Amino acid sequence: MRPSQRLAGAAVVWCACLLGLSAQAHASGFAPPQGSVWTKLSFSRWFADKKLAGPFDRDPSAGIELGSPIEFDPSTGGALTTESFNFDLQATPLPRLSLGLFFPAFQSVTFEDSTFVSTTTGTGDARLFAGYQVTEPGGAVATTINLRVKVPTTTPKRGFEFIPLSEGQWDIALEQVTTWAASPALHVTGRTLIRHRRPFEDDTGPAELRRVLKPGDEAELGFEVGGAPVEGLWMKVAYNGLWSTGAEDRSGTTTITLRDRRQVHTALVGAYLGFGRWVHPALEGLALDVWASHPFTGQDYPFGLTWSAGLAYAVVLGGQSAP
């Protein structure tokens, strides 16, 4: 396989997984108090030197079953590295209504194997959401419905030597999040999501090789347990599962070709440490937010660790610190 073909394959894998770094680290069925503003600046890194085998990789004679961690390419290996500086903002302008933004202001993606290295830099796609708590405030159980939209902010560069930072298309998702406050220091959360992903034209290669690709529509299921072992520290463990209907090549006039059918099951741990109160009373809402996730099974998905660390600040307009 030529380097350009391997790089094109890596680009498709990367495009299929652009949502990996934008995992919601603070999903809750409880809307923050009216006037709350929460913001965060963070750095994230994702490294994968293997992928989870999909239907087209399966080879029982070689010991490769669905979900087996395998090289990106049998002869040259390969690794994907993504580093990103991100901006998060969430506000609650009206009772029970929350608005938010996640934006990778700078993103660097590198694919390398034993024959070449390729790096692309730029902005990532913005992700907006609007959520409304549909249950009455004050109860021990709360459910919020979120509308999530991915907005492309960059156009893929042409040429097989580039790993795209964006597919260049819009996605829209509907999510429900339900949280049970077993106590003020122990919350249990479940979430479900369905996501529609629009077709896009892959024009990163020569004109004669341009294709129309349809990323698979997706469903997600998540479960999280969070608690405060000591005042000022919130810790959590979470599971997230993702299932895709399958990415398709729709370039032909009469045929549709299945390219992959990704699925991934991920474990996540995180900690949120409010340390501002130790510095100055005016900085009570300042916190360190860290999390890490790793897939433990799946198919057609890069197999590697993602981690993020950032500084967050929360306040309720009017002078009160947000919890």
What's this model, at a glance?
The chain is mainly β and 323 residues long.
What is the β-strand count? 19
Poorly predicted sequence stretches spanning 5 or more consecutive residues: 1-12, 19-24
Give the overall shape, derived from the CA principal axes: globular
Indicate the mean pLDDT: 85
- The first-to-last residue Cα distance is 55 Å
Strand order of the largest sheet: 1-3-4-6-7-8-9-12-13-16-17-18
Helices, by number, come to 2
State the helicity in percent bands.
under 10%
Task: Describe, in plain words, how this protein is organized in 3D.
- It is a single chain.
- The protein is mainly beta and 323 residues long.
- The protein has two helices and 19 strands.
- The strands form two sheets. A twelve-stranded antiparallel β-barrel has the order 1-3-4-6-7-8-9-12-13-16-17-18. Strands 10-11-14-15 form a four-stranded antiparallel sheet, with no helix packed on it.
- The termini are far apart.
Break the fold down into its secondary structure elements and pairings.
Blueprint: H1 3-16, E1 36-52, E2 69-70, E3 79-94, E4 97-112, E5 117-122, E6 126-133, E7 141-151, E8 171-183, E9 186-197, E10 200-202, E11 211-214, E12 218-230, E13 233-244, E14 247-249, E15 257-260, E16 263-274, H2 276-279, E17 286-299, E18 301-316, E19 320-321
Antiparallel strand pairs: 1-2, 1-3, 1-18, 3-4, 4-5, 4-6, 6-7, 7-8, 8-9, 9-12, 10-11, 11-14, 12-13, 13-16, 14-15, 16-17, 17-18, 18-19
